[in-house]
Specification:
Blueprint lengths: L12 H6 L10 E3 L4 E4 L4 E6 L2 E2 L7 E2 L4
Antiparallel strand pairs: 1-2, 2-3, 3-4, 3-5
């Protein structure tokens, strides 16, 4: 399935309670508006594809603070 066809499925809330940042081991939160997993401690965002958080460092993008 190509990325353009991927569905914006939310992450399971029970799963989010178990996940930690793969870089720092810190807390993560789900940004439902942008469909991203956020690690404030690492200043990174991780994509969510079809409801599955992709917690791989090479997939992460830096957080931009305005």
């Amino acid at each position: 399935m190509s990325m353009s066809n991927s569905k914006n499925i939310p992450v399971n809330k029970d799963l989010m309670r178990l996940l930690v940042c793969p870089v720092t081991g810190g807390n993560l939160y789900y940004d439902q508006t942008n469909n991203l997993i956020i690690s404030e401690s690492a200043k990174l965002s991780f994509p969510v594809r079809e409801g599955i958080p992709i917690l791989v460092r090479s997939e992460a993008r830096p957080l931009i603070n305005d």
